[in-house]
From TrEMBL:
Keywords: NADP, Oxidoreductase. The gene is rfbD. Belongs to the dTDP-4-dehydrorhamnose reductase family. Catalyzes the reduction of dTDP-6-deoxy-L-lyxo-4-hexulose to yield dTDP-L-rhamnose. It comes from the Bacteria. Pathway: Carbohydrate biosynthesis; dTDP-L-rhamnose biosynthesis. GO terms for molecular function: dTDP-4-dehydrorhamnose reductase activity. The keyword NADP applies. InterPro entries: dTDP_dehydrorham_reduct (IPR005913), NAD(P)-bd_dom_sf (IPR036291), RmlD-like-bd (IPR029903). It comes from Agathobaculum hominis. Residues 5-277 form the RmlD-like substrate binding domain. Its EC number is 1.1.1.133. This is dTDP-4-dehydrorhamnose reductase. Signal peptide: none annotated.
């Protein structure tokens, strides 16, 4: 097999770190990575990096993922999540690279109680969701060789996340307070990285939903995190309202994965158990 040159933009984050761990040391890949040292919203910087390294595949894991920061600074959200995606799409087209653009379940408004597939219309209500959806549209318009991958409730090493917050709150306060009515599917960055590696070697293009199988509420997710860490006695109390500034019901249906038979995402509980066993085994720092 010939060597695949891969650029991971946002390599220090949750998904970027999982991809880096997956590919580094594998001689089938030549990796180049970037974070804020190559600000994706800067067309010249992003273009120059692409021209210099000439990747076969660009994986855009970079983004402003802090939903509160997106609400407070909408222009910053559009700059990074939309214009950044546009710049990588333009660079990818110029060097004939495949662009894998990572997006989110927050492109849906979450008002209904049915799982959402790739053929459902997006209708974002948060600034994070709106800016990510704008990024999707620009990628679609600007380069044919693209795959947009929407996922949900990502966790992994790299950034402080929900899993870390639950464990910290449990230790500090002796309880965790979370909504029972916010539903989606927790997805481990490692599991998503497995699908992204598969995508790199296919001729599949277009839009894919890729969340772990099954669904739960934020509170149920927290209970499972505590159980796997021997902290079952810590109560998870129902929050009076959704405190996460996120749409309520954004469970993704991975319909395109089923139709194409391309990949099977693991069940969310299995992926969460794997995450902790790998972490405890010291494979991740
Ligand atoms: N987290 C979720 O629950 C979730 C769910 C579904 C989809 N997604 C999407 O999946 C992708 C990866 O998410 P993640 O959770 O791995 O994100 P993350 O942990 O927040 O990582 C994002 C990375 O992008 C970098 N970055 C931020 N602004 C940048 C810029 N202007 N130029 C270059 N790099 C920049 C960050 O660097 P700094 O750390 O220095 O800011 C960080 O390393 C994102 O596109 C996100 O929208 C996330």
């Amino acid at each position: 097999m010939s060597i695949t040159r891969v650029w991971i933009a946002g390599a220090g984050g949750r998904l970027g770190s999982a991809l880096y761990h997956r590919f580094s040391g594998n001689t089938d890949y030549k990796l180049v990575t970037s974070d804020r040292d190559v600000p994706i919203e800067d067309a010249r910087e992003a273009g120059r990096f692409a021209d210099l390294n000439h990747p076969d595949v660009i994986i855009n894991c970079a983004g402003l993922t802090d939903v509160r920061a997106c609400e407070e600074k909408p222009e910053e959200a559009y700059k990074i999540n939309a214009i950044g995606a546009r710049n990588l799409a333009v660079a990818a087209r110029r060097i004939d690279a495949k662009l894998i653009q990572i997006s989110t379940d927050d492109v849906f408004d979450g008002d209904d109680d049915a799982a959402l597939c790739e053929f459902d219309d997006a209708h974002p209500t948060t600034m994070y969701g709106k800016s990510k959806y704008a990024g999707e549209k620009l990628v679609r318009e600007l380069t044919d060789k693209h795959v947009i991958v929407r996922s949900s409730w990502l966790y992994g090493v790299g950034s402080y996340d929900f899993v870390d917050r639950v464990l910290d709150n449990a230790k500090k306060d002796g309880k965790v307070v979370l909504p029972e009515d916010e539903i989606s599917s927790p997805t481990s960055a490692d599991a998503l990285a497995g699908f992204i590696e598969c995508l790199m070697h296919t001729r599949e293009f277009g839009l894919y939903h890729a969340s772990c199988d099954g669904s739960c509420s934020r509170a149920e997710w927290a209970r499972e995190i505590l159980r796997l860490n021997g902290m079952d006695s810590i109560p998870v109390i129902s929050a009076a309202e959704n405190t996460e500034l996120r749409p309520r019901f954004t469970l993704l249906d991975n319909m395109m994965l089923r139709i194409t038979g391309l990949y099977q995402m693991p069940d969310w509980k299995t992926a969460l158990a794997d995450y902790f066993s790998t972490k405890k085994g010291g494979a991740h720092k």
